[in-house]
Amino acid sequence: SCTKELRSTAVSIILYVSMFAVVILTLCGNLIVIISISHLKQLHTPTNLLVLSLAVADLLVGVFVMPFDMVKLIESCWVFGNLFCSFRNVFGFLLTSVSISSLIFIAIDRYFAVFYPFLYSSKITLNIALFCIVLSWLSSLCYNLSLFYFNGNSNDENLNTCLGDCFMLINSTWGIIDLLVTFILPCSVMIILYAKIFVAAKKQAHAINSIKQILSMDKRRNKISKKSERKAAKTLGIVVFVFLFCWVPYYLCVLIEEEMHTSSGVLYFLGFIVYLNSAMNPIIYALFYPWFKKSVKLIITLRICNPDSSLISL
């Protein structure tokens, strides 16, 4: 059986309260995004549909994965049985893949919006966004089914060596493939696209600043231009930093592991950090939008329950 780590009651309560708060943050944040975009017709845009898909995946992570991993981390043992362990592994891998692919599509969408603004409205339609969402879920499903089937975990006798544990063995070949597909490739795409967007934002800020100087505008507006430039840098920096913060420690630990599995406590904890990306995504992709704060007020005050609330202008 797995070795249960002994903790005082006070420490256990603090851990449970802290992780429970993380789960609630994940559920509430993504639920607000889902309700807002689904209900308010003004928010039915291609970009917001991609954000909606991301929020659905992150919400399911908060429902089916994070609470059980939280108990496993605190109790040091998996107490939910082998069947639910398999269910957790399938859902965990699938939903994180959907979340990552959604982040990539959002980056691509923003890239086209910045670099091809006149073609964006005609080329990036709701149908295109829906196609990208379906592609995201189907490709993630196919990839993870292939991972589970060809990796050969079902025939691995080592899975039952420790009663009370829940992990998935990944052979070296699939470990490299998974590293490329779920980390190196998405990370590279996001950094490249957001770097180009940031450069374009700086050029636009400098262009606006030059025009204002030509027109002899006051110094206050010049400061506003520089402030917008810093805000763009800060927002894009947060997007990339949070993604790297959640994923880099996990894969670094995987790379230095002698065997690629998630049975160790350290690796299991880093896996939970990966799921924290699901809690941060609604903050990054929704909290920076003005409509998010207004939607929160509509939901809290129950104005969203009015018959004509779907037509409210934000």
UniProtKB/TrEMBL annotation:
Subcellular location as annotated: Cell membrane
UniProt keyword annotations, A-Z: Cell membrane, Disulfide bond, G-protein coupled receptor, Glycoprotein, Membrane, Receptor, Transducer, Transmembrane, Transmembrane helix
Family membership noted in the UniProt record: Belongs to the G-protein coupled receptor 1 family.
Membrane topology label: Multi-pass membrane protein
Origin: domain of life: Eukaryota
Cited InterPro entries: GPCR_Rhodpsn, GPCR_Rhodpsn_7TM, TAAR
Chain ranges of the G-protein coupled receptors family 1 profile domain: 29-285
Cellular component aspect of the GO annotation: plasma membrane
GO MF entry, a single one: G protein-coupled receptor activity
Lineage per the UniProt record: Eukaryota, Metazoa, Chordata, Craniata, Vertebrata
Coiled coil, from the record: none
Protein name (database record): Trace amine associated receptor 13a
Pfam families xrefs: 7tm_1
Signal peptide: none
Transmembrane segments annotated in the record for this chain: 13-37, 49-70, 90-112, 124-150, 174-195, 232-252, 267-288
